[in-house]
Amino acid sequence: MSDQNSSNQAEEHRLGALGYKQELSRVLSKFQSFSVAFTYLSPMVGIYSLFVLGVGSAGPRYIWLMLIPVAGMYFVALIFGELGSHYPISGALYQYSKFAVSKKYGWWVGWFYLMALLVTIAAVDTGVVPYLSAILNSWFGMNIDPSKHSTIMVMTLALLAIQTILNITGAKMMGRIASFGSWIELFGTFGIAVILAAAGFNHGFGFLFSSQGAETVGTNSLGVDFHASWWTGAALVAVLAHAFIFYGFESAGDVAEETKDASKQVPKAMRQALLAGALTSFILIAALLLATPSDPEGYKTATSFAGGIPYILSTAISSSFLRDILLLAVVFAFFSCGSSIQGASSRMLFSYARDGAVPAAKTVAKVSPRFHTPVNALLLGAIVPLIFTLLVNITPSKDIKIGFFTYPANVSALVSLVSFGVSGIYLAFLLTVLGALIARTRGWVPNGHFTLGSKGMIVNIIALVYLVVMFINMVLPTGLASPRGALFNLDWVTLLVMVVIGLLGLIVYAFAKPGKQSSSK
User: Fold this and answer.
1) Which residues make Cβ contacts (< 8 Å) with residue 464, sequence separation at least 6?
2) Quick check: 198 pLDDT over 50?
3) What is the DSSP letter of 405?
4) Which pLDDT tens digit goes with each residue over 115-138?
5) Which of 269, 342, 277, 336 is closest to 34 using CA atoms?
6) Residue 87: closest CA among 17, 3, 186, 155
7) How many CA atoms are closer than 13 Å to the CA of 19, on its beta-carbon side?
8) What pTM, to 2 d.p., does this model score?
9) Disulfide check for 226: which of 190, 214, 234, 451 has CB 3.0–4.6 Å away?
10) Rounded Cα gap, residues 101 and 82, in angstroms
11) Taking Cα atoms as reference points, which of 398, 389, 419 lies closest to residue 151?
12) Which residues contact 318 (CB under 8 A, 6 or more apart)?
């Protein structure tokens, strides 16, 4: 116990040296720190949301593309680990970039990251609606339509309210929800794989190396045309189904001030969450692929938006009770993922406000004397995603031509905003890693518990190259008729949303006048 107290005192001393006092409760254990990162990364949420994008675009072979973002993000996690160990402060990317480069630079990195987090909360909490509706319909004989805007709004409001109340009661509660969510993730990945294997796979292992004709429009499950090119066509889109999963590990840094022995544990939690996510994702995706029906029509349904994972499970598992249990696990995975992201975003808001870097900073920075949580930042972390959810009501029935680009019909403004979510995260990551590289060229030497030593520069460069290449792959406009434009970035829409977020940032920056109260250390 004395060792733990000594460690906490050392962390508080380090925090003080960086210009801050300990206001939040340092209560998160090693496993809880890992769990916050792991449940934000959430293999189940990612795979249930993106499986069809991957296999529909490139066929079963898409599973092996996972190696690219996992390897790339591992280098990123190493850089973040150094930064998180050297600067174990709430607000992670914002604080890392602020200290590494400048206050203004850090503000903009944090702005894009914060907005992407808030968008992701809306995406996750609205994404659970079909699964929650299905279980309510099954258990209570209800007839809920998950596509109705009113259904999406009511369920999202209910989820945000529950997540916010629980998060307000303390970091310990957030840690418990995340810890339970981690066990659910393990059950929902290993458990489903075992159940599907017991039911009997429909294909041999060699099936995972086939494309099933995905590169040709006539045999592509999603009806997109890669002009018979797999590597330079289908793979470039399908890899995004993995790239959209393997982030979130950085949230261990967002809750650093509530983590015991943070300088040592945060870097470990980041790497462990990423590697655990890779292992569980591979096992679940492989099991789902091997369980797809072997007949052409059944395979096409299983790998298209008309069927997907629910169709695979319904054809492979005869027990409705077991299917409902799996569905319940999916719902909780979405819930714990949203809860962890809200926790991370509120710490980012708190970190900004404590520096006087947002409007109404004193109010936003308020910490509950009872629960030791940034209560007003948490409320903002619920209100803003709820406002974003309202955008589901803006859905044009026909294409709208705006200058040089076309906004596609039947695509809600919320979907357009969500398309920014992942690219916004990657932009913030890219800028943070670039900031670390700039700091190294200026002579910065990491001195936390975790350092890369002489390998730091080369690791930094590799991480930056990966992020630049993947970011371009995400946002590159290629026309609405192209697979990328049709399935993900809506041609120019994602880039334009990013510009709008930037313009909004200019307004907030002008009102906040950041930097006047922030630490200069």
Assistant:
1) 430, 433, 434, 437
2) yes
3) E
4) 999 999 999 999 999 999 999 998
5) 269
6) 17
7) 13
8) 0.94
9) 234
10) 15
11) 389
12) 199
- Give the confidence band of 521 by pLDDT, cuts at 50, 70, 90: very low
Amino acid (one-letter) located at 330: V
DSSP labels for 295-317? SHHHHHHHTSTTTHHHHHHHHH-
Report the distance separating Cα 391 and Cα 479, nearest Å.
24
Class of domain 25-386+420-465: mainly alpha
Copy the structure tokens of residue 73: 């993000």
- Tell me the CA end-to-end span of the chain in Å, nearest whole number: 32
Query: What 3-state class would DSSP assign to 259?
Result: strand
Mean of the per-residue pLDDT values of the chain: 94
For 407, phi then psi, to 5°, come to -85, 120
What kind and span of H or E run contains 431?
A: helix 413-441
Nearest to 68 by CA among 56, 82, 54, 86: 54
- Coarse DSSP helix, strand, coil percentages of the chain, rounded to the nearest 5 percent: 70, 0, 25
Q: What is the pLDDT of residue 288?
A: 97
Rounded to the nearest angstrom, the gap between the alpha carbon of residue 355 and the centroid of all alpha carbons in its chain is 26
Map tokens 């069809």 to a residue: 52
Amino acid at 207: F
**Tokens standing for residue 298:** 């059944």
Q: In angstroms, rounded to a whole number, what is the distance separating the alpha carbons of residues 114 and 116?
A: 5
Tell me the domain boundaries of the chain: 25-386+420-465
